[in-house]
TrEMBL record:
Record key words, sorted: NAD, Oxidoreductase
Pfam families: UDPG_MGDP_dh (PF00984), UDPG_MGDP_dh_C (PF03720), UDPG_MGDP_dh_N (PF03721)
InterPro entries referenced in this protein's UniProt entry, alphabetically: 6-PGluconate_DH-like_C_sf (IPR008927), NAD(P)-bd_dom_sf (IPR036291), UDP-Glc/GDP-Man (IPR017476), UDP-Glc/GDP-Man_DH_C (IPR014027), UDP-Glc/GDP-Man_DH_C_sf (IPR036220), UDP-Glc/GDP-Man_DH_dimer (IPR014026), UDP-Glc/GDP-Man_DH_N (IPR001732), UDPglc_DH_bac (IPR028357)
Top class in the EC scheme: oxidoreductase
E.C. number: 1.1.1.22
Keyword Thylakoid: no
Domain of life, source organism: Bacteria
Catalytic reaction list: UDP-alpha-D-glucose + 2 NAD(+) + H2O = UDP-alpha-D-glucuronate + 2 NADH + 3 H(+)
Species of provenance: Litchfieldia luteola
Gene3D superfamilies, alphabetized: Cytochrome c1, transmembrane anchor, C-terminal, NAD(P)-binding Rossmann-like Domain
Record pathway: Nucleotide-sugar biosynthesis; UDP-alpha-D-glucuronate biosynthesis; UDP-alpha-D-glucuronate from UDP-alpha-D-glucose: step 1/1
Protein name: UDP-glucose 6-dehydrogenase
Family: Belongs to the UDP-glucose/GDP-mannose dehydrogenase family.
Domain UDP-glucose/GDP-mannose dehydrogenase C-terminal: 314-416
Length: 435
């Protein structure tokens, strides 16, 4: 058992803290956001993540998990401090490291003796060395710091599962002692550990996300060609994925990737490459393809109708993927903005992301309380997120509720054979149109 402090209670920090407590460590999570900490002290999760609240309760009750806004208190007698603060993108696409260096200053002020700092936040290659330098230079009392890069690979919506069942844990360190401490902390997860130098660990994170984003843009490009040559993207992706060198995951064509990671990390890697005078052509194309793909449903609707002026559009799903309330960089946002420009009258519905969407879309759209309400009298429905509630929605309801049952499905939620049983016009991604 180790005494650990975690700075930042966002997705990564909170899940890491809760899971480290679950495997027996003594964990204090710190955040500057007073409201967030108050919510957590109340035993509630500030983010929507299946299974998280249960673990918060259990570990608080068993006194392994604490929350505070006070760094001095949190860092008292800790052996390891995890940094899991946000690294949002700057205007030029580079990662903003203000929160990282703010956290480093807090360590300099409140810690003395010896400390291992584990960086979970996604930071450009070379940043961990700068963090070490910053902490040591600003230290108020003698301090020996080892900085370990330990990138995070969890997915929103599956965060707990991924933490306990990840494919690998990467530990990048120049200190054998620090690497051994972090390996020991993670031992109960029973996940293979890969030891590297610090910079390679930092790069593994960016390269992994960039590669997954590339897979998605690749399959989306293939889906566009499939539509034109009369092939079926689902069969094509399945046939490709059976080759174990390719793998079947992340070959689901749709309206592109969103969220707080892929869009930000791909742009940051282009920047990182640019800083060392390398043009990352491939990744730039991946990003361009994705930007285009997010608007695919409007493009299809415009092709179908000529103009969307005055048309009633139901947007089904707003989150960037199912099982999350996150709408950051979601296709829904750019789609709605574009539809508004085209003069559409929009009603949106999402099972959990309505509050977050309201903060962005404000009063530009109507908000429905149910799928049925969103579809009522609509001229077309655009499916943006493949929530189970949408996939399981009875198809006859589209017929009954809509003014004209025309669906543009950005996530291929339905089987073409099923759609054919109804008087629905159905446009999906990389598959034949059904009329
Ligand atoms: C992603 C990675 O999967 C995690 O490994 C990583 O830790 C995380 O970013 C991060 O850097 O923190 P996440 O953003 O939660 O996780 O979501 P994913 O499940 O990877 O989905 C990302 C986007 O890709 C979604 O918009 C999803 O709809 C889209 N996607 C995914 C596709 O369009 N097709 C696919 O086949 C898979």
């Amino acid at each position: 058992m180790r005494k650990i402090a975690i700075v930042g209670t966002g997705y990564v920090g909170l899940v890491t803290g809760v899971c480290l407590a679950e495997i027996g460590h003594q964990v204090t999570c710190i955040d500057n956001n007073v409201d967030k900490i108050a919510t957590l002290l109340d035993g509630k999760s500030p983010i929507y993540e299946p299974g998280l609240e249960k673990l918060i309760h259990r570990n608080m009750a068993e006194k392994r998990l604490e929350f505070t806004t006070n760094h001095r208190e949190a860092f008292f007698k800790v052996e390891v401090i995890y940094l899991a603060v946000g690294t949002p993108q700057n205007r030029d696409g580079s990662a903003n490291l203000d929160c990282i260096f703010q956290a480093a200053r807090e360590i300099s002020e409140h810690v003395s003796g010896e400390i291992v700092v584990v960086v979970k936040s996604t930071v450009p290659v070379g940043t961990n060395d700068k963090i070490k330098q910053s902490i040591e230079e600003n230290a108020l009392s003698p301090l020996k710091v080892d900085v370990v890069s330990n990138p995070e690979f969890l997915r929103e919506g599956h965060a707990i599962y991924d933490t306990f069942h990840g494919d690998r844990i990467v530990i990048g360190s120049s200190s054998k002692r620090a690497a051994a401490i972090i390996a020991e902390i993670n031992e109960p997860f029973n996940i293979p550990i890969i030891h590297t130098d610090v910079r390679s660990a930092e790069m593994i994170k960016y390269a992994s996300n960039a590669f997954l984003a590339t897979k998605i843009s690749f399959i989306n490009e293939i889906s566009t060609i499939c539509e034109k040559v009369g092939a079926n993207i689902e069969d094509v992706a399945y046939g490709m994925g059976q080759d174990s060198r390719i793998g079947s995951q992340f070959l689901k064509a749709g309206i592109g990737y969103g969220g707080s990671c892929f869009p930000k990390d791909t742009k940051a890697l282009v920047q990182i490459a640019g800083n060392v005078k390398h043009t990352f052509d491939l990744l730039e194309s991946v990003i361009r393809i994705n930007n285009h793909q997010q608007l695919k449903l409007v493009e299809k609707a415009l092709l179908r109708f000529g103009s969307l002026k005055g048309m009633r559009v139901a947007i089904l799903g707003l989150a960037f993927k199912p099982n999350t309330d996150d709408v950051r960089e979601a296709a829904s946002i750019v789609l709605v903005e574009r539809l508004l420009e085209e003069g559409g009258r929009i009603t949106v519905y999402d099972p959990v992301a309505m509050d977050n969407a309201r903060k962005i879309l404000m009063n530009e759209v109507n908000y429905a309380d149910s799928l049925r309400e969103a579809l009522y009298q609509a001229d077309m429905a655009l499916i943006v997120t493949e929530w189970d509630e949408i996939k399981e929605f009875p198809l006859e309801e589209f017929e009954k509720l809509m003014a004209t049952p025309i669906i543009f499905d950005g996530r291929n939620c339905y089987r073409l054979e099923d759609i054919e049983q109804y008087a629905i016009e159905y446009h999906s991604i990389g598959r034949a149109m059904i009329k």
